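Render this sequence as a predicted structure.
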Amino acid sequence: MIVVTTPTGNIGRHVVRLLLDANQPLRLVVRDSNKVPPALRDRVEIVEGSHGDAAVVDRAFRGADAVFWLCPPTPSATPAAATVDFARPGADAIRRHRVSHIVAVTTLGRDTPWQDRAGNATGSIRMVDLMRETGAVVCGLALPAFMDNALRQVDAIRQGKMVGPIDPEKKLPHTAARDIAAAAAGLLIDRSWAGERDVPVLGPEELSYRDLAAIVSEVLGRKVCYAHQSYEAYKEAAIARGLTDAFAQGFVDMLRAKEEGMDNVASRDTAIIGPTSFRQWVEHELKPAIVD
């Protein structure tokens, strides 16, 4: 039995589809069971509730062989609260039910100079450390920025801009949610792997945010520019959206670490390289959301 958390999210929904295509027995942990497509409900077990709830994960992990673990992007008081503290009930249940294999979504940055000062990325790395204390074999899928994050800027893109604080010329790796899901599903199906490891999942190219805006412009056939903002303005906007000062600072620290090179350290020789280019992603995912 494989348990999938966040099964209706950007990554989780692809993981579910791929595992069902491979005829794997699935149990889904979902806050609202009505969000599970009707066509899937007869093919999976459903445990309703948050996987940050001890009672929920106790039910969900009983008899499980493997778990796909992803902390939901829920605003919290601190980066640690959103990751390590959220994962404590899950880690206890993994230990109690002796789940053997965990595929956990995390970030790039482990064993780099930024490991302990990268805000939300640091919290994610420490969450994987917590999982490894359970005795399970844990593979961390170490990720850069998601291509899919551009969907959060649909309104801004319609106005001709993409906004962010990272240097416009800084080239960085980006990856697509569906490629992350394919990597996760492969590890969950073939559980012959052992030992503690973080596996980077990268896209096929490194691009600056100015490059990303240029590609969006070309695909959409309209001018889109990268509007570079200060980290102070970025943090103020995050707090205005309801984030705490500490959690907003966690995003700032993570993005600064990326700008300084944290995401460029991962070796492409040992990484899983997803096939989806940013141009392909824009064609298939962003363009339909922009063009009415």
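Summary. The CA atoms of residues 175 and 208 lie 13 Å apart. The two ends are 41 Å apart (CA to CA).
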